[in-house]
Amino acid sequence: MKLDTTLGDLERTVSLCLRDGMCTYGEWPECHPLCSIYSRHRVYTASGGGLVYLVRALAENRIDCTPTMMDFAYQCPLCEACDMCQIIPVPSPHVGPSEVIRFLRHNLVKEGFLPEGIKDLYRKVQRDGDYPGKRLDPAVPGDIDVEGAETVLFVEGLHSESGQGIYESAISLLKKIGKSVAVFDLDGGSCGAGLYDLGFWDALKTLVDDRESRMEKLAGKEVLFVDPHCQAFLMKRYPEIASKSLRATGSHFSEFLADAFEEGKLRPKSETMSVSYHDPCRLSRGLGIEDAPRRVITSLGMQLIEMKRNRANTCCCGAGGGIRPFPDFSDSVASERIKEFEETKAELLITACPYCKEQFQRVLPPEERARVKDLIEFVEEQTE
After folding, report:
1. Which end of the chain has fewer CB atoms < 10 Å from its terminal CB, N or C?
2. C-alpha separations of 232 from 235, 251, 287, 288, 341 in Å
């Protein structure tokens, strides 16, 4: 969505909601509950469609922004389950309910309505012009030739030490495969996805403008992403926000690994175990990447046991891109998913998003956290 979108621009879009509740549950015939805020509150306002209706009421000058509206809008982890609605995205500007929720957050920010959990973050963003994060600097072995590489590994600087380990595993796998890949980062800064999701659009516009020349270096490159939130933002939203298109192609690292196995460039060890795979919301619903991680797991010779909610019907981990304005709510969502994993009796829970891994480990006892692994780390451990 363009950052200068107005309530008037969305008036036709938000008027189409039929209040049929399809934004709260998954595909037929299972119809699993998917919307985490609706599952908790059981009122329509706390759902994708309900938040769309609030934007409609704002557009028609029937209500003003309120703290209750803020609570619902920021509890939503933007899992994009509501984007499976086949009605709302029809008219121009072709935005789904989750984009309308981001727009609602932007309006709440302008009116000064911010949850306590992100007020300090907002002040830091206003001061520094970027989402504060930890600088990640995965070491590139000297025998990997990155000069003139047509493939670039994009390092998102928003992650914790856990994210550092995932990127280091990615570098190790590149060496095993024999792929020369340049590493691209933003000097520890974020790609802007967090600012977009939070509604901090004024800061995001400044960030994108300041980095435009830097991002131009990706033109003509194949960009590999570890973080699906970053990939979805740069590949799908950045062209709407920046004055110039990114002019690059993007792939998730799981797709790269799946191809490497099929081409015989990775050899699995002989160890076999049972694993369950958690589809990250932004990877499955946002980017439509569901088969590649499963191809990787089966290429390793592992027994894959699916959870009852999977693929486009996946259940959110609750991390909301690592933002967590309401930590207790986020942890309760993650705990629900862990229970679903336990029902499979699988030995390990594999995911393909740094935020999902961190969120699941956060709600597990310390002695059980090793049962959750990122796909990239798992492949690095299980290949020669």
Report:
1. C
2. 5, 10, 6, 10, 26
